[in-house]
Design a protein that fits this description.
This protein has 127 residues and is an all-alpha fold. It is built from seven helices and no strands. The longest helix has 22 residues.
Length: 127
């Protein structure tokens, strides 16, 4: 693993958690290995490690883009990541509300439903 991939693995684990990354790696096959290597190096090692934005801001942008594009399968993971990156429940709601104004109410409605479920699960874990 090259240095950028190592940095990417470190950041990916810090943002998404070891359990998530370990599950993804356990599911990796020869067919999916190039894609896993790509996202680890290019997304996590080249983008998330850049100094221009902090992780809170990157989480806001990521949630907005996933909501706008209707990438529902990724929203829950990034709501959890946003909490881990220091966003509050209120800030996540503001990101989704703001996105709804520009990307459409149906997109934000779906993201709020996913966010409500994830945040409820996280609150249940705290007690």
């Amino acid at each position: 693993m090259n240095e950028r991939a190592q940095q990417g693995d470190r950041v990916r684990r810090e943002v998404l958690g070891d359990a998530h990354v370990d599950r993804a790696e356990a599911k990796t096959t020869e067919f999916t290995r190039p894609f896993q290597e790509y996202i680890t190096e290019a997304v996590w090692g080249s983008i998330w490690t850049r100094p221009g934005l902090d992780r809170r801001t990157r989480s806001c942008i990521t949630l907005a883009i996933l909501t706008a594009l209707g990438r529902h399968e990724e929203i829950a993971m990034h709501v959890r990541a946003a909490i881990g990156n220091g966003l509050t429940t209120e800030e996540i709601a503001e990101v989704l509300l703001h996105t709804g104004a520009y990307a459409g109410v149906p997109a934000a409605n779906a993201a709020f439903a996913i966010g409500r479920q994830v945040l409820g699960e996280l609150e249940g874990q705290e007690g």
